[in-house]
Each structure stands twice: as structure tokens, then as C-alpha cells.
């Protein structure tokens, strides 16, 4: 009966561990720390936990191993129309608008007539035509209007491609290079796109104190609307880490960053040196050799137990 | 004296009327007396709480605690100040000298608070005084049961805060109702930082705009057709919809609404505590706090009535379920002593009947019990003493003694009436009999009152605890004196008849019992009178046995009172998050609920509304509610259940456990700021040094045998994300430190932008960044700060962000930082443990200059009590000596009577040893009572022996004759006293553990001292008899 109960616990333990995060939870072997060798404990910084306790308190184990650490920076920016893809079309001579053929949003072809104007002096009608293929995005004239200046006319943009302009702060400048891959997202349910940095401005803006990085985005579907605020996630480097662990394994213990490693006696805090990190993962430079089993989740409970035995006297209740 | 007694005998009607009046007034007062479980031992304390959400302990100490502390220095009657600066909360405890009026002290503190407020920077919180209550103020805890399962925790909490709380607070005697659990409803404006950038608005501008669009104003009135029309403008936001439609700015005539910047939804406030139940769900609960000085039983009754009323008005399916009530404790404690009292009265009456052999004198004697008790009630009302375990305990102790005076009186009257000659009138006989014993009765009772005199000098907790007992004993004894001297002769005269000649048979039968004892006793006493050395040897043997046993007794302050409620306190790592704390607590709850006797487990984690306690989130208090005793499966007693709960809890990695009781814990906390029997305080300045040394001390203490639950206060161990502004970096952009900090506070911590009113209910509007933009240090480092030039600069460009470990809390006493190490003592007495502990710390720990250790907790109380008693007890003894000397006018007689004391002590000590109890304050009081009783017995005997000698009978003969004749009163007084206490000795109810040592000592002591009085004193009387009379 008792045996069956134990098996059940092991099984549920396995299940929980399998369901846990990637890189965390392949280790289910409960051997190595039975209660019987508790007497021989001379090491004060050891925490012994049974498999049941590991399960109940949600402590998960993993084996230290190599991994790829992707380091990235996040930059704010916006989508703009590439200046070369933009055409401002104005009536050349002052005159009255006789006819308008295209409206905002209409696709236009190069050479297509947009409007007919009657010149004030010549009193002859002339056509104004699109200079590029694109979409009519601005229209500043209406039927019957007498146009005397160059403020009125059409703006046509070719949106088959747009530019993502990212702001580069001083601190980011050393990491960001032309050619790096960028994931552009604008949140709020809009899709992400990937591009490459095509250009970084050689000077820094006097007002905003930022440089600019340009990514040319294909915009065939028109999903990137100019003016959209975006965030660019740039993979600065891909590091092949000798040992890569989830950040959830790291604990502060006695003002040191430690990982709880399972030894023959139990869990011991191991001071580690941390290399590069991203939001979830950390590279371990020293302290945790490949192949060692460590607590990748629930290290906090082990830490608490250690601190407790410091002042509370081990197992005394 | 003669004239007084004659006067009373002549004015019998007056006396009877007076007597009935005393009884009536006494009874009326009894009905008016407040009823508590036990005396409130809370100190005169005013607490000042300041909530500053989001501020770290260092800042709290610097900006809040320090100004408050400084302002309070130098208040009149100030005893000491203790403070705790926690994350987001400053608590300053201002202790006044005992007996300071609570309203007076609160007024003083309030005046100074004004001053303190001026020194606290804007936005750092507003110091408030705690509820007008004491450690015993938490009278009822309840939780909301939602049987429909449809209400969210936020809705339940709103019901608690706006429906239940306000209704309960109208109950007279309730000073506050504190809610905890669930979420306080708030309107959350979850800002998208990208939108801020897009529309070029900062979060602080957004907050100002929200505030500016949420207002009602009045504009006086206009006159219209001889009528006044009040002009008011309504602009309050009343719903999420209103909030969403606030126009933030207008671009080219296009309004930009708040909804374009933020998601607006109903959410829960940031919380520092929650309440879980049975390991499966969170609940919303409330704590009812009683007003200082109000009558617990009345308040509880009214609260219960109100709860029933509120239950009816609650939405369908929601029910208030109380899970802790002081009522049960009050009822149990009072019924324990009341039962003991009633049983005592019955036992005493039976003994009277047995010894007196007839009903009439027994009736006279028995009447002295109600008279003395009700007399004491009048006094209790006058001295403001509530009915509680201690005051009624005092009466229970006194039952046996309050009949003594009357026994002596009535016995003498009875005896003289039986032996009287026919010439004397009945009144003359009664008067003569009364005069004969009036003086010894007066002295004997005076002595009993005097021996209780030291108790009146007790201070602090022990004073508050035991003074009620001293008062009631003294009052009852005083009442019994009045009865014995003035009423007993009158009533005897009215009730008792001369024996009729033909009633001889009856008389013989009546006296059969005492005669049979006398037939055994007489040869025995003759033997001892002849062989005095043997009597002496008997006494010496007894005393030696006492001396052997005495060192084996342990000592403690007061035996632990079983409140009947089991509380388990969990302490987790200080840096734990609330969610983790909840997860772990629920694991423990699930373990406990498996114990078959447990009905439910309800846990408070951290704190709810500020007032009753200030626990951080790593503290969980599990209230374990047991099933009805009839439903218990395995265990028989509560202690057995406790054992199985302990087993069920088992080993908990990373968690300290401590079994406690609600009132005891709150009171302990108020007393020393710690929750254990013993508190070692280490004073010093540097937090790191304090922590290290405290750990060392704890390690040393832990090795001392008997140490349990040793635990230094966790002052360190809270990880901080420290964001240091780089002054050079901000200078380049022209940004102020404040710009950075304000944005940080609003973005990460959230900022309240006014309130949204739903009728009278008001809810905060909290503006905060979307969680994705503030969850990680990396995200925080990307928060943009707007520079005056128009640039948006990420935080990481302007600040250095680092993770450090900071202090969890900073405790101070009298303006000095300290750390305390808590400790319980198991299986040995406190005093010797402390001695060992002090020695160990002295020898093993080296403290830097300016650092020192002081010991507190229950130990300190005991020490203080001992010190005071060491002065007062000798004084009392001296007074007794003088009284005896005045009474006997003979040094030898006085010494003979005082000889009773050591023998009585022996009995008490041995009785404690046999029953396995410790020396404690209650047992000391037992010894004190014992003094009085045995001296009384001695006096009765020696007075009579002297009288016989004066009548010309030889010493030897007088010894035997006197002892035999006085056997009845001596045995009667001793047995009534002892039997009066037997119910206390055997009681198992709530509170019995406090009275038991007292009863044990008196009963044990009476046993040995009666042997002495009856066998040894007559035997060695010869050596002490005055030579004058020889």
C-alpha cells in the first residue's frame, strides 16, 4: 500500500516536471538523498529534500548544459514612407479646377491623369498626371477651386515598401550594426515583420540625441501604415553559451548570485559568475559545470530552508 | 467592641435590613459588571501607523518614522517608544506609564502628530493613530461565504468594505472593522507607453488631465421668481465609459480620448495581504475590534445580533461566517470559575453540616458566603474590576476562608449555648461568645488581608493580571469580617436555640462525627504532648523533605492559559512574494485539513486594513477551527488534536512554524514587539553588524538545552531594484531628478488620479503602465523620460539600475536601532535558562563598542515581579508579626504561630512537585494565601490554649484539652478552605491552568500545616508558653 502510494507520487512528479518550462525539468531521479544519512551531516549549507517535497513545493530540476543565447535590444521607432516613393504633384500654372478623377486611397498609375485645370492666363485646360505608381494619399484641391500657390495638389505614395525608422540611443550605438536582423512589432494585435538594418545615420540628431536605423520593409499587403509606432527587437549577437540556464534558477544568497546544485548530500548553494543575459536566460561563466543537476525552478524554497537553518535550527519545530 | 456587638444585638431589625440591602445592592452591581475572559494586560499604548505605499524601509525610517518618533519624545507619562519601519509602513508604538488614561495619551499624541506631519515630506503618507483598543480587542473574525460562487473576490471585498463594515461599526463598543482578503476595487487606467510617445503626452500629464475631468462644483444660487435655485455643475466621472471619453488632447480638431492611451478596467488594488481557506480558495474576511474599556460580552452579543441583521440584507447566497470569537473564550473562562465557585459553596455547606451537626448554625455560617461575595461585588464595581477568570478566581479561593470567621464565631456561640446555665439570657450568652472570639477573628482576617497586600504593589502585566484577584479576595474577606462580627451574632441569636433537655439523643447523634474524630485524636495528641521530641522530629522531617523537593521545582511567569483556539504561525523568507506566500500557505493548509478533527483552516497572510496588526506578507497566521467535540474521530482532548496537527504539518522546507494562541500572541506582541516568551534585544547602529551578531547570538542560544523556536528578527533580505539617478546624464538633457522619479513612480508603482464615485462608494482611479512595460528590470530600463528639449530618453540612459539586498525592516527603541531574537523555552524553567543564556552570550559573543544586549519577554516580567515581592513580602511579614504580637502580647506565642509558615510552605512545595507544576506567580499567590490561612488556624488554637492556662489548667493538660476542644473549628476552617479549592484543582475548563497551581499550593500547604496545628503546636506549646502564666 505504502509502496503504491510512493509510486503514485513519483509518477505525478514526472508528469509535473515534463509539463514544466523548456530547458527545465528533465530530471526525475529521486535517489541520492535518503533520510538515513542525515546523521552524517556536518555540512551546514546543505538542504535535503525528498522527492515528495520537491513535488509539493514545486521545485524542478534540470541538468546544466550548453545553449544558444540570443541577445537583443529593443528600440522604439515609426513607419515612414520612403522619400523616393513619394510624389508631390501640383498644378504648374494658377488656375481653376475643372475636373478631378482620383480620390484619396485610389491606386494610380504613372502617367494617369489626376485632374484637369484651366489656366488663369491662357484659359486653356491642362492635365496633371501622376509621376509614379502608387496610392493617392493626400488631396488638397476640389472642384471649382482657384489655385494660385503650390500648396495645393496631390501626394502620391508608393507603399509597396516602407521604412521602419528606429531611434538609436547613445547606449545602443555600439551594439547595433548594419545588416543585423530586426523583428518589427507594433503591438496591439498587429503582425510582426522581419527585416535587416539597411542604414544607420552617420550623425546624431541635435534635439532628440538619437541616431536612426533604417529597415526596409516589404509592404505588399499594406499592413504597415506609415505613422505607426513600432518597436524593433534587434538580435545583437547569438552567443553559444557553454552553460545556459533559465534566470529562474538564480537566487541571491548572502549577497551572492547562486544556483542550487544537487550533490550527493542534498542541495548546496553554488556561487556562479554570470556572463551575458537576456530577459529569460543567463549564461554561466563559472561555477556550474556541464552535467550537474540544479534546481531550475523553486530555488527560493531551498534558499529559505538554508536561511531558516541559519537561525531556526534545521528541523526543529 | 462590646458595645458595638451589643448594639447590633439590640437593633436586630436594622441589621437584617442592612444585610438584605447589601445583598440586593451587591446583586444589582453583579448584573452591571463587565464580563471578560481575563484581565486585560495590554500596556497603555498608542500606535501611530503611516502607510506610504511603495517606499522601502530605509526611506520609511528616514522620512516618516524618525519625524514621528522625534515629535513624541518628551511627552508626559511617556514610558518608551518603539518603532518598526517596514516596506510601505511605519509603525510607532508609544508606550505610556501604566494607568495613564488612554484618551489622555491619545490626545497628547494627536497634538504632537500635527508637528510630525509638518516634518514628513509631501506624498510620504499621513500618520494616523491606531484603533482605541487593546490586545484583547480582536473579539470576532468572520469570512464571507459565497454559496452561489458567482461573486468575484473584488465584489465580495466591496460588500465587506461598503456594506458590512459600516453597519458593524455602528454597534456600540465596536471601534473598528478591518477588512482583509480579496481585492479592493479600483479603476485601473492601464497606459500604453507607445501611445504616450505617439501623442507626445507624458504619464504625469495624463494623470493631471484625468484629475481635471472629474469634478462636481457648486456655484451658489440664482433667484428666479422669488425662489432660489441652487446652481451646481456635475462633472464627476461615474463609469468606465466616462473615463474612456476624457479628452486628453486635440490634434487638428480631432479629439484624442483617454481610451486611445489606455485600457480602463475594474481591477484590484495593490495588496499586502490576503486570506485563504482550506488550501483551496481565497476568501474575504473581517476583524471586529472592540473599543477600549467596553464590556466584551455585551459587545460580542450586540455584534452577533447585528451580524444576523446584516446577513439578511446581504445579496442572495452571501453569508457572514464567524470563525473566531472571543465569546466562547469569555463564556468558557467565566463558566470555569463560576462552576468552581458553585461547587465550592456546595462542598463547604456540606462540611459545615457534617461538623456543626445541625442545620441552624450551618445556615448561619453558610449565609456568610453570599454576603461576602455580594459585598465583594459592590467593591468590584467601585474599583472597576470586571468579572473574569482572575477576579472570580479570587472569590473561588476565598470561599473556604470567608466562612472561617463566622465558623469560629458560631462555633463559640454554639458551644456556649450548649454549656450555658439557665440564669444567663440568650442574648447575654451570644454577646459573651461574640466578644470572646471577636478579637482573634478580627486579627485573623486582618492577617489574611495583609498577606494579600504585596499583590497590590505589583506593576505592569502581573499587576493587571493579579490585582483583580487580590482585590476580590480582600473585599470578600472584609465582607466576611463584617458578617462574622456583626451579622453572625444577630442571626445566631435569631436562629440558634439553647439545646432542649429532652433533645439529648439528637445532640449525641449530631455530634457523632466530631466525637468519633475526637476519640481518635485525643490519644494521639496525648502521646505527642508526652513525647514532644517526636512532634518536633515530625516537623523537622517535613521541613527537610520540603527543602529536598524545593530545588527540583522549575519556575515560570504564569502557566499558559489555554484559549481553546489553535493558531499556527508561519514565517517564510522575508523576500517572498505574496503569490508564493499564498502557494506555500495553501500547501500547509491542505496538510492540516487532513486531520479528521479539523473543520476548517483560515489563514491571514500579511496585513489587510491597517489597525490590529502590521504583519508583512511573509507571515501567515492559520486559525485552525476544530469540529464539535462529539464529531472527533480519534483524539480525546485538544492537546491530542494539537499533536496530530503538529504531525500533519510536519517538515516544511524554508518555513518556520510556531504554535500560538490569538490573545496571547497579540498581547505578547504589544508587550515586547515579539511573539515569544523570551526576547533578547541587541542594540546598535549598523544594520549589517546587528544582523550578523544577532545570528551569532541565536546560534549560541540554540545550543542551550530547552531552547525552542529560536528566531532572530529578519531585518535583512529584501531584494531591491535600486535605480540611482546619474546626475551627469540627466544634466545633459536638462532633466530633473524629480522628472525621472515621478515617471518611475507612476509607471511602475502606479499613481492615484482621483476617485470614482458610485453613489457613496468611492474607488481610486489608478494610473499605471501596462504590465508588459514594467514587469522586468529590462522593461523598466526602457521606460522613456521626456526631456525639456523634446527628446525621449530611456531610463537606462539616465540611471544605474542594480539589484541589491536591502533591509526588510528596521526596528528602533527609544531612537536606537535594535534586532530582537525570539525564543521559547521548553522543558525547563525560564530563570535558569536565562542565566545560562546570559553567561553563554558573555563568553562567546564579542560585541563592538556601542552595542549591547538586553533581555525581555515574560522573563523580564517575572524578574520585575520577584524584585518587587522581595521588598514587599518582608514588609507584609513584619506587619503580620506586629499584628500577632499585639494580639498575644507575647513574643513566644507569636513565634509559635509563625512556625506554621515553614510547615505550610513544605506542603505547598511538595504538592507542586507531586503534580508536576512549576513555581509561578499563581503558585506564589497560593503561598501568600496559605500564610494567612495557617496563621489564622494557629491563632485560634493558641488563643484558646492561653485562655485555658489563664483558667488555671496546667500546660500539659491545657495542651491536650485545648487541642481536643478546638479540633472542630481548626479542622472545619482547614477543610472548608481546602474543599472550597478542590473544584479549582480538578477543573479542566478554559483558564483552569492558571488557578490550578494556586489551589494546589493552598490544599497541599493546608494538609501539612493542619497536621502541625493539631499535633505539633499543642505538643511544643509548653516551650512557648509564657512563663508569666506558669
Q: What does this entry look like structurally?
A:
- The complex is a heterodimer of chains A (317) and B (1030).
- Chain A is built from three helices and 22 strands.
- Chain A has helices at 2-19, 51-56, 299-312; strands spanning 60-63, 67-80, 86-89, 95-100, 107-108, 113-119, 125-129, 134-139, 146-147, 154-157, 161-168, 181-185, 193-200, 211-218, 229-241, 244-246, 250-253, 256-262, 267-271, 273-277, 281-286, 293-297.
- In chain A, strands 2-11-14-13-12-15 form a six-stranded antiparallel barrel. A four-stranded antiparallel β-sheet of chain A has the order 3-10-8-5, with no helix packed on it. A four-stranded antiparallel β-sheet of chain A has the order 7-6-4-9, with no helix packed on it.
- Chain A is rod-shaped, with a radius of gyration of 33 Å.
- Mean pLDDT of chain A is 78; it is low at 1-23, 25-43 and 310-317.
- Chain B is an alpha+beta fold.
- Mean pLDDT of chain B is 84; it is low at 502-509.
- The two termini of chain B are 29 Å apart.
- In chain B, strands 1, 2, 3, 4, 21, 22, 29, 30 and 31 form a nine-stranded antiparallel β-sheet that branches.
- Helix content of chain B is 55%, strand content 20%.
- The A-B interface holds A 47, 49, 53, 56-58, 74, 76, 167, 169-171, 186-188, 207-210, 229, 231, 252, 255, 279, 300-305, 307-308, 310-313, 315-317 and B 192, 194-195, 197-198, 572-573, 576, 580, 583-584, 587, 646, 649, 651-657, 695, 698-699, 702, 708-712, 717, 719, 732-733, 776, 778, 782, 784, 789-794, 796-797, 803, 805.
Into which percent range does the helicity of residues of chain B fall?
A: 40-55%
Oligomer: heterodimer
Largest sheet of chain A: 6 strands, antiparallel, barrel
Query: Helices and strands of chain B: which structural class?
Result: alpha+beta
Distance between the termini of chain A: 29 Å
Q: Stretches of chain B where pLDDT falls below 50 for ≥5 residues?
A: 502-509
Shape of chain A: rod-shaped
User: What's the average pLDDT of chain A?
Assistant: 78
